[in-house]
Amino acid sequence: MNASHRRSRRLRGALAGLAAAALGLTGCASEGGEGVSSSSKTIDYWLWDTNQLPAYQRCADLFEESHPGLSVNITQYGWDDYWQLLTAGFIAERGPDVFTNHVSQYPQYVSLETVQPLDELEATAAVDEGEFQEGLSELWTGEGGRMYGMPKDWDTVAAFYNKDMVREAGLTEEDLATWDWNPRDGGGFEDVIARLTVDENGVRGDEPGFDKSKVEVYGLGLNEAGGSSFGQAQWSGFAAATGWRATDEPFWDTSYNFDDPRAQEALDWYFGLVDKGYMPAYGQFNQADGVAPQIASGSAAIAFDGSWSLRSYARSDLDLGTARYPTGPDGQAASMMNGLADSISRDADDPEAAAQWVAFMASPECQQAVARDGVVFPSRQDSTPLAAEAFAQMGLDPEPFTAPVEEDEVFYFPVTDHGADVRALAIPALEDIYANRAPASTLDRTNRAIDVLFETGEG
Amino acid sequence: MSTTTRQIVLDPDAARNRRARERGPVTRRSARRRGLLLPLAFLAPAGLGYLVFYLWPTVRGIWLSFTSFNLLTPAEFVGLDNYRRLVQDPLFWDSLGITVWYVVLNIGLQTVLALIIALMMHQLTRSTFLRGVVLSPFMVSNVVAALVWLWILDTQFGVANQVLEWLGVGSIGFLTDEFWSIPTIAAINVWRHMGYTALLIFAGLQTLPDTVYEAARIDGAGETRIFFSITMPLLRPILALVLIMTIIGSFQVFDTVAVTTSGGPANSTNVLQLYIYDMAFGRFQFGYAAAMSVALLIVLGIITFIQFKLTRANKTDLD
After folding, report:
1. What residues of B are in contact with residue A79 (Cβ under 8 Å)?
2. Model confidence over B52-89: pLDDT tens digits?
3. CA B111 to CA B116: how far, in whole Å?
4. Least reliable range by pLDDT among A10-14, A59-63, B306-310
5. Which percentage of chain B shows pLDDT scores above 70?
6. Which of A190, A391, B301, B306 is the 20 to 30 Å CA partner of A102?
7. Is the pLDDT of residue A438 over 60?
8. In chain B, which residues touch A (CB < 8 A)?
9. Cβ contact (<8 Å) for B264 and A12?
10. What is the pLDDT of residue A62?
């Protein structure tokens, strides 16, 4: 799941979240913990994605059948409240036993010692990491080589496009399947989105007389303040196509590369699409809703989004297609890859029982149940085809999401210490480029601040 | 108990003498001590509340500002490090500047509007209903008010922008444009608070004696002259009090910003309280957040002191 996807709403829910924290804590105190009867132990499990709740409830039922004496109580909180409630839970030692974790959060939890290493618990230590999609175990392995999350799913990013608009523009789906890109003129990719952009008078973005101040349909949709620290579902694929990576080492590096001219050139080109009228300006669409509504309402022809959103797009009445990022100067069409995992809280009442539930969620039995539901790509390699089939049945081609993984054209969501601090520094700087159209070279200053952060812990 | 209390209140000496007779001779000191017990008992609940909910958190907050603290592991004393960092932190000074800009807009507009409304209420109407209407935005919670305005001002669906489009002005990013967002947030809070502020000023207006006004009219003063030479000077202590209260409240702006902009775009609405909140609860740097809170406390203390001196808030011109 995209960390930034709901970032803009994080503080919006601040008061509501804090108020809910008190309620949530009293609620979980009465529901979880000791359990209903003295003979059965209840494992309290939290997740944030409503789409995944039914599938994991089925897993919980299967788990309870095969593990007499243990029961699972699942609680779902929206992303906004989730992390605040979790923090409040850690402080009050009243949090869940097991919870869904995100790579942008877990290094902090490791340093605060609020999660347990899974290798030290019998059931989770026995899970064969080789069964997971490549790279997922590394995402969740800490600096000391210990594992803090059991991979539960993975995600990549690709483009969703409106097939009718593509046809009306005189383009073919083949044009989108074979598009290329470079940071100087945007290559074939920019030609496509210019063609797909239409102003109120029906003039297309690549035609004379195009009025960029009165755009009816944007070639490329964009939302959430231009993306998280790493533009996961926005610009990350373009920047990576220049050979750039956010950190030199994919995991646990101690410096960032926001000062790299390659990334800055890609960002100047990307947000420059706003100046050309091909992409909506900052604040034009409500940030809270993500980019999907821009496609659903016909305001945008193409939008990049994560595989976690496949189901949301499938609900649309429109005829939608999917395509990979364009092939970049490095000859690859790379996508950022990330994945969620289940972690065990330091305060778990019975860590071994919690570990059994975590191991069960990584078992073929549970993963296949999740795969058939068509909400995410489960972490086990053997479950990927099942999920792909479920997505195909919904009418969306999952291949642009699976191909980067199969062809090893993925790069990972950076995992480092000081994640929250880096976000606090990078997001306003990126907003400055998007909203105020500051040059991307201003990121030099941000990168220096991040360096200071890693040197002194202050940022 | 009630009888004893009443006796003490009505005739303290009689009660003391009776008790003295019952228990034999007592020293003056123990009698004085017993006399102190009752007021102390009455003060105890408020005193306890003050200690637990004000004094202790303040002392602890000041202590935490000298530590590195993440809420989950014990605080570690770091001396003046947090304050040294504060002085060098450009974001802190930026957010202080943004907050001051907000306060100037918010208080300036609010005080003028509230004064006009109060004068109109005083001169033109005695209707309790109308006074209630003026106060009604204050009944709406800050978060609800902010959410409603967020939608009214939405660039796509908002009524305000649709009206602007009809008028041919074109859509304005009230809460997404760096230039507009702080004035807009200030205006939202003016909308919510001006009725309440007006009511405070109105109450002050009602305390002004009619005699001075009559004297002024007999002397032939016009309405404008009366306003500037009589109403304003006499209203000064009330206005000073209102200003001190509203400025302190204004410096603490948080919820409206959190709901409408979350500090964006590009930190342009990152007011001090939001920065402190994010530093503590978003980034777990409670020590530094505490140091910034102490800085805010000092700033507010200085402003209040200056205001108090400049406006002579504790003196009235009616004597």
Report:
1. none
2. 999 999 999 999 999 999 888 889 999 999 999 999 99
3. 9
4. A10-14
5. 88
6. A391
7. yes
8. 70-73, 85, 143, 154-157, 173, 175-178, 255, 258-260, 262-267, 270, 274, 277-278, 281-284, 288
9. no
10. 95
* Residue B22 in tokens: 């019952």
Contact in structure between A378 and A367 (CB atoms under 8 Å):
yes
Domain(s) of CATH 3.40.190.10: residues in chain A:
3-154+338-379, 157-337+415-456
- Residue B68 β-bridge partners: B76
- Say what the ipTM of the complex is: 0.83
Looking at residue A37, its pLDDT comes to 42
Asked if A11 and B278 come within 8 Å (Cβ–Cβ), the reply is yes
Tokens 């602890």 found at: B60
Substitution target in B67, B69, B71, B72 with the highest count of A β-carbons within 10 Å is B72
Closest CA to A194 of A179, A50, B249: A179
Topology adopted by domain A157-337+415-456: D-Maltodextrin-Binding Protein; domain 2 (3.40.190)
- pLDDT digit string, tens, across residues B114-155: 999 999 888 887 788 888 888 888 889 999 999 999 999 988
Range with lowest mean pLDDT among A223-227, A431-435, B62-66, B201-205? A223-227
- Domains, chain B, ordered by start: 2-47 (no CATH), 89-311 (1.10.3720.10)
CA–CA min distance B65, chain A (Å): 14
* B258/A15 Cβ within 8 A: yes
A11, A47 in Cβ contact below 8 A? no
Q: In sequence order, what DSSP letters do the residues of A16-57 get, joined into one string? A: HHHHHHHHHHHHHHHHSTT-SSTTSEEEEEEE--GGGHHHHH
Check A432 against B154: CB less than 8 A apart. no
